[in-house]
Amino acid sequence: MPNDPLRPDTAPAVLPAAARARRLLTTVAALVLTAPLLATAHQSRPAPYGDRLTVHARVQHSAPHLRIRRAAVEAYDRATGAVRWRYTREARRPLSVLLTRGEVLTLWDDGLVTDTDGTSVRWHRALPAAADWLPAHGGTGVLRPLGRGILAAVTPRRVAAYRTADGDLRWVLPARRGCVFRPERALRRGGVLLIAQPCARAAWTAQLVAVDDLGRVTPQRPPLGNAAPGHRPQSPPPSQTEAPPPPHTEASLAGPEGPHPTPDITPP
């Protein structure tokens, strides 16, 4: 009887039970020895932006006191001096720190602005062309709160406003040609930040810029929705310079030819 070409002439070899067990044990041992190496490699990966946030103690319902100590931002208990958390970035140095709405905003020597709540670093934003001015300036007056959850970063060439909830860029105001902003000479007056803008040839009125959370303060400025997604923005207060409507008097209701006569509605 001819052999079937689709059927093998011999049955496949079957490994003994002992050989199968040895092969299984070898595979399991390799996985056990490799797992710690993979975990160590994962943990040794550098954090984004070189962040290192170490939490020592969690304290609820109490605003921390902040200080810059050497190359770290520290939140501490003023009564005991105990450090709550410590935030550093590899090979970087904090220049200034600001506490607003429970968020700690830090300006670093590479021009990076960070936000942390003491449990995690929430966002990073880089100021443009920081290497051109930040080393000589030192960061004085760069971070300015504008209220309603908006932070202004005042640099010589521009003012940028960020939403502290998520770091979203809300608006940018460039300096006039031939002029620069002076962050260290900014002054807050009520809800407005007044920023010096020295110019070689300009009237003194052009050398002072007023901004708030909506941008530059100008007459009849259109509103800007700065609220985070999912939050209903507040209606802006009515303008104090808007004149009240005139009272409704008989003379004001009269037409150009005098009051309209009252029609006769006496029944017949």
Automatic annotation (TrEMBL):
Gene3D superfamilies this protein is in? Answer: YVTN repeat-like/Quinoprotein amine dehydrogenase (2.130.10.10)
- InterPro entries per record: Quinoprotein_ADH-like_sf, WD40/YVTN_repeat-like_dom_sf
Q: Could you tell me the superkingdom of the organism this chain comes from?
A: Bacteria
What segments bear the compositional bias annotation Pro residues?
A: 234-248, 258-268
Q: Region Disordered: start and end of each range?
A: 217-268
Name of the protein in its database record: Uncharacterized protein
Q: Which organism is it from?
A: Streptomyces chromofuscus
